[in-house]
Amino acid sequence: MSRRATVADVHELAQAMPGAKRAPGGAVVYQVSGRSFVFFRNPRPDAVDPDTGERYEDVIVFWVESDEAKQALLLDESTPFFTTSHFDGHPSVLLRGAHVGRLTRDEVVETVQDAWLARASRTAARRWLEQHGLGS
Question: Which CATH number covers residue 51?
Fold first, then answer.
């Protein structure tokens, strides 16, 4: 069994993906081919604690392949992924940094890899899948 995941794992795994770069600026954004695949949001009014009304300061956004993939993650009650109305129609799921430990490191590996695959060029994605024995 894989150990519990940490926010440091998210950073490490995103940086390790082929061609991944951390975008310059304030919020941490990991990109491939100039396109974001994982980023750490600034506090926003759409993601707040329901009891206190305080904005969450630890929201991480992961791109997903499709709305079907998004819905599968959101409907799986064993995961801490969520969304807000701001992300309706957007191919991504949200995760609070405070809840990363509800996932195993292996689950975070898969989530980061899937986010990268959703945003990498077709050539890069195909190459990566083939290198990992997942290509067709």
Answer: 3.90.1150.30
